[in-house]
Amino acid sequence: MASRTFGKGLRAASKANIPVQATARRTFVSALAVRPVSATLSKAALTRAVQQQTRGVKTIDFAGSKETVYEREDWPREKLLEYFQNDTLALIGYGSQGHGQGLNLRDNGLNVIIGVRKNGASWKEAVQDGWIPGTNLFDVDEAISKGTIVMNLLSDAAQSETWPAIKPQLTKGKTLYFSHGFSPVFKDLTKVDVPTDIDVILVAPKGSGRTVRTLFREGRGINSSIAVYQDVTGKAEEKAVALGVAVGSGYLYKTTFEKEVYSDLYGERGCLMGGIHGMFLAQYEVLRERGHSPSEAFNETVEEATQSLYPLIGANGMDWMYAACSTTARRGAIDWSSKFKDTLKPVFNELYDSVRDGTETKRSLEFNSQPDYREKYEQEMKQIRELEIWRAGKAVRSLRPENQ
Ligand SMILES: NC(=O)c1ccc[n+]([C@@H]2O[C@H](COP(=O)([O-])OP(=O)(O)OC[C@H]3O[C@@H](n4cnc5c(N)ncnc54)[C@H](OP(=O)(O)O)[C@@H]3O)[C@@H](O)[C@H]2O)c1
């Protein structure tokens, strides 16, 4: 996602000679406020960005490491339709990913059916999205029996719970698809031992299913990982690439099931959500304890980060960000970054160990298999929602022009 956003932003800004800062809200960033983006990027960075946009390139040099990247342009819609002309894609589960991937497959014209438990929350959502009971909406078992490619997008806990019923239906010739390596990689815990005579593949979008859908509708595509767990036909990787494009990916990065699940569980617990929430809370609490008002503490912790700095880091990288801020900010941020890194690295190592040894999987299975897991989460969400930081945030967001 980052590379495409970057490329797009770069093209637009270069063309119009617009400084990136023009869109930033209040921020300590000042140095680049009047400099066009093209002038602030090194020639090498510019070349890299252009390479990222070049169509048909399959091997990309990521900071000295060459990796294979597949792209949507090689799989136009007509080719997808021909490739899957004899297939029924049975997409099981209609949560965030089921919704995004399912609607994209349908809009691409593929023969896709949805399988969810009758009259659950997902069934109602699917009906609202125009899936028709008995035509392209069935209960899980019926959908699997009709499918040649079974896309298991149940929650990870439900994949384990329903496996004894699903496995016998995965007969020779079918393909099993996941969007997370969780179930087969941690098979000792999940009991998801895939049949040995079918292809097992993965397409894991690097983002929420809502983003999978939004980017598709915008004519763009999400970055996804692809992997092959078992290749019986010799076509498993090709099928994963084609399905990856069909569900709405722009670029597909090759990995393994193991690496996908380790990095994903690690990332979401770390910088993507858990770690970042912990940092926000720690910084906010100290500011409040030292006498700062809620609005000041929130603005300095979350609002400036998410509205100004993080999008700029996403678009241009950390070196650019350092170069773009005041000399005062730059000196302090560089100095403190190593202290934070040294303090946090042991925590990240502990987290990685907890992912690799299955502790995180066990916890997730235990919690998410409980019949009242939704209610329990709602209680936790309520506690988070009621934290002062997020109540202050609500008030700050209400002042944004678009919310008035
Ligand atoms: N969310 C993301 O951002 C994301 C990103 C990449 C990959 N993934 C992966 O994609 C897969 C799907 O995740 P998700 O977030 O889209 O969905 P999810 O919210 O985790 O799961 C929701 C689906 O599971 C069904 N379900 C739950 N318990 C069930 C049970 N006991 N029997 C039958 N169905 C049950 C729900 O149906 P009801 O409504 O009937 O309960 C719903 O359709 C997972 O492997 C996940 O790791 C997710």
From TrEMBL:
Domain KARI C-terminal knotted: 256-403
Binding positions for Mg(2+) 2 per the UniProt entry: D264, E300, E304
Single GO biological process annotation from the record: isoleucine biosynthetic process
Entry's Gene Ontology cellular component terms: mitochondrial matrix
Pathway(s): Amino-acid biosynthesis; L-valine biosynthesis; L-valine from pyruvate: step 2/4; Amino-acid biosynthesis; L-isoleucine biosynthesis; L-isoleucine from 2-oxobutanoate: step 2/4
Highest rank taxon of the organism: Eukaryota
EC primary class: oxidoreductase
Family statement drawn from the similarity comment of this UniProt entry: Belongs to the ketol-acid reductoisomerase family.
Name of the protein described by the UniProt record: Ketol-acid reductoisomerase, mitochondrial
